Amino acid sequence: MSSPSHGESSRVGRGGGQIVPRPDGWRSGSPAPWGSRPYGSSLDVVTVVGAVAARPSTPEDDLPVPPGARPSAVLVALHDGPQGAEVVLTRRSWALTNHRGEVSFPGGRLEPGETPEAGALREAHEEVALDPGAVALVGRLPALSTVVSMSHIVPVVGRLDHRPALRPATDEVDRILHVPLVALTAPEVFREERWGEPPLERAISFFDLEDETIWGATAHILVDLLTIVLDSSTRWAG
């Protein structure tokens, strides 16, 4: 792993060795949207997919693809585990030029004429050998556009009946993670930073796990998912 360059920082211990290109002048942001809710461990897949399926539409659902942006999709694949619902994530190879070592959802650029659902399933199969037939599609989360990679991303949520036997199916993937959603809501795991100056200031979300940092678009999507689930009418008991 290379050393951080100017403006970058590497978190040691909690959060692992992820390199974050943090700009000068950043500041701390808002607390977790779910911070006032009790921390528990009974968030299962039925609860999560039910909240996603029932969520009302938002303006972000119909965001047009910005000029020059690349239509993309990611698969938010969920299955039950010992601590409740788990989400499938990957860590990108440190040998890559872009987004190296970052934790992300399986996904990527859409092919011409391809729907986000078809593209998300195809990319998951190509990256982690996930059988598309094992995924029950549930719905979409709000779309978002990234600044650095100029991608317009549609998150597609899918349900798995059990934890799948996955493997890195491409050199782009170093590691496959099954992260319990409840772990993302544990105290001191989430943080937000503000990058840039108004009116171009951006809120950047982070989840500091024991050995990995989830940030950027992936963290943004996870915040949307958790907010939708925890703002639903379901009772989240400890």
Question: Would you kindly provide a written description of the structure presented here, covering whatever features stand out?
Answer:
The protein is of the alpha+beta class. It is 18% helix and 30% strand. It has one domain: Nucleoside Triphosphate Pyrophosphohydrolase (Alpha-Beta Complex), CATH 3.90.79. It contains four helices and 14 strands. Strands 4, 5, 6, 7, 8, 9, 10 and 11 form an eight-stranded mixed beta sheet that branches. The chain has a four-stranded antiparallel beta sheet with strand order 3-12-13-14. Strand 12 and strand 13 form a beta hairpin.
Total of DSSP H or I helical runs spanning 4+ residues: 4
Helix percentage range: 10-25%
Second CATH tier, the architecture? Alpha-Beta Complex
Total E-strand runs = 14
The stretches of 5 or more residues where confidence is low (pLDDT under 50) are 1-12, 233-238
Cα shape? globular
Count of the separate structural domains: 1
Main structural class: alpha+beta
CATH homologous superfamily caption: Nucleoside Triphosphate Pyrophosphohydrolase
The share of residues in extended strands comes to 25-35%
CATH level 1 class label = Alpha Beta
> What is the gyration radius calculated from CA atoms?
17 Å
Whole-number mean pLDDT: 86
